Amino acid sequence: MSRRLFHKNLSLFKKREKRLFELVVSTHLPSNFHIFNTKSGEPTLKVGEISFHSLKSPSKTEKENIKEWAKKINISPNQDIFVFGLGLFYHIEQIASFFPENKIVVYEPDPRFLRAILEYRDLSDIIDKIEIKIGSLISLDLDFHYFHPPSLRFHSKFMSVIRKNKKIKKGVLPPLRLKILVVGPIYGGSLPIASYVANAFKKMNYQTEYVDCSIFKPLYEKIQVNVLKEENKLELLKHLNYLLSQYCLAKAADFSPHLLMAVAQAPLLNQTIEEMKKNGIVTCFWFVENYKILTYWKNTAPYYDFYFTIQKDKFFEELENVGVKNYHYLPVAADPDIHKPLELSIEEKKRYGSQISFLGAGYYNRRKLFSRFLGMDFKIWGNEWENSGPLIKHLQEGGRRLPPEECVKVYNASKINLNLHSSFTAKGIEKDGDFLNPRTFELASCQAFQLVDSRRYLSEHFAIGDEIICFSEDEQLVSLVDYYLKNQQEIKRISEKAYKRVQKEHTYVHRMERLIETIWEKPPLRWIKETEDEKISREKLIAVASKDKDLMHFISSFPLDADLSLDEIVSQIDIGKYELKEYEIIFLLMKEFKKEFSKAL
């Protein structure tokens, strides 16, 4: 840091923006804000795993990015350009260069970025062309012209709340801070999806309780291994299922959710679902499996208020045949907090990297097709590859099942990720395969290159040939692998486009928004009643809190531009964990008074 530069910049703000001047003076950079010089000699910023600009030449890279963006944007002379995210200011300088007649208004929720800029960048030539707004109060009517991608990633939860509140204003989401109970399975492929779902609801600022049934997996495995007689084993597993179902019912009684969100293989008995519905809980199930292979849906689907699936067409007909009416297509997605580009160490690249890789279970169709890559730099990761013949030489680390954090390292380290959907019947590529597996979206979210088999729904989610490359014949896959190993620039271009598409449309937040929108199309009675509850004006709360720093901080934890019900406010008070503050006691007393007054009526 140059103190001379910092004080020079600070004096510019003291003259123009006294509030920003005071804010910057009272703000300090934490140790995880890593600022260092690049190969070009320019400073760049990295926070955790997020690089806010190029590590080689920030100005040059941002010039290329903004040049491409400027070709697509339609901005008239003298029109204000609204930008989200400060970064270290390189993109803003380039926007000012391409649009010299326009004022640039930059919104940044975190004042630490402005402090970093004042310490490391000279603003004297650009200060008169920009207006900087720091803080969380962003009008829901504001449409940004440019989103700085790393800033979007850093502020993903903040932007999820902004997007949710815009949808509330349009009437497509309920003006209610929902309480949602997410129930996952004991084990299996849908287990991580359940945690991604819970994370998405939390990002949307809903009160979310995740019932993680995987904590009971050791007991499940003990029964499987130690009980020899099949009839006794089945009886014990039946009792375990009942226990877990009752456990979920007890959690629902404690939490009183508006919505039960059950993910495939969740251990919920039909009578438990009926009990929850009697208590005013809306119930929905996300069947993220192949309906042709796992058929338990026939016995469970009719009990849920809403049934979401990753297949449609024929499956919808089958659901109607068993009496299900509220069925909806909802494909899987990616969680950008987990599935993201990584900078791997040399050791990690060596361990997880290869020219070609596949991560997944050893289904018959994969064994047949992948034999074409014997002897190449080809790594196979995953379980159930026993008795796979010569392919066993390519199996890594004993065929263990990798957790999501390691899967992402494989995706990032591989030049070409093969993505062949599983099939029990096909000898290679499944003809007329429909659903998309999670890997399709996760690889794209990691900005990792993939070759995926042709699927009926694929073109609904990606531009084939531009954002994703697919194959429909065995020989075509072999020739595509050969072509792309020789064309790294093509790999980079396609991967970047796939990444942008996922961030824009295919995260679990996008999916859960769609799920809530679907339910809200015919609003549940309990939800309507609670939205009609008397609201407390946010403006009045802010006015009251203006002289109380703690109360202001408490109010700022709620969604922006939204009035609040007393129930919503009280739900955020952590009773019993620490000594209650004065304002918390007042809100709790107001809640009790309201409750007693309602009884008297």
Query: How much strand?
Result: 5-15%
Any idea of the CATH topology of the largest domain?
A: Rossmann fold
Average per-residue pLDDT, rounded, comes to 91
Q: What is the number of strand segments?
A: 20
Distance between the termini: 66 Å
Give the C-alpha Rg.
Answer: 27 Å
Q: Which structural class matches the secondary elements? A: alpha/beta
- Total helices: the number is 25
Q: Look at the structure and give the CATH class of the largest domain.
A: Alpha Beta
CATH superfamily of the largest domain: Glycogen Phosphorylase B
Counted up, domains total 4
CATH architecture of the largest domain: 3-Layer(aba) Sandwich
Please estimate the helix content. 40-55%
What is the 3D form? globular
* Main sheet makeup: 6 strands, parallel
Can you tell me the residue ranges where pLDDT is under 50 for at least 5 consecutive residues? none
Order of strands side by side in the largest beta sheet? 9-8-10-11-12-13
InterPro entries: Maf_N (IPR045376), YkvP/CgeB_Glyco_trans-like (IPR055259)
Domain Glycosyltransferase Maf N-terminal: 79-131
Domain Spore protein YkvP/CgeB glycosyl transferase-like: 371-516
Structural description of this entry:
By secondary structure, this protein is an alpha/beta fold. The protein has four domains: 3-154, Rossmann fold (3-Layer(aba) Sandwich), CATH 3.40.50; 160-329, Glycogen Phosphorylase B (Rossmann fold, 3-Layer(aba) Sandwich); 346-506, 3-Layer(aba) Sandwich (Rossmann fold); 533-600, no CATH class. It is built from 25 helices and 20 strands. The chain has a six-stranded parallel beta sheet, sandwiched between helices. It is globular. InterPro entries: Maf_N, YkvP/CgeB_Glyco_trans-like.
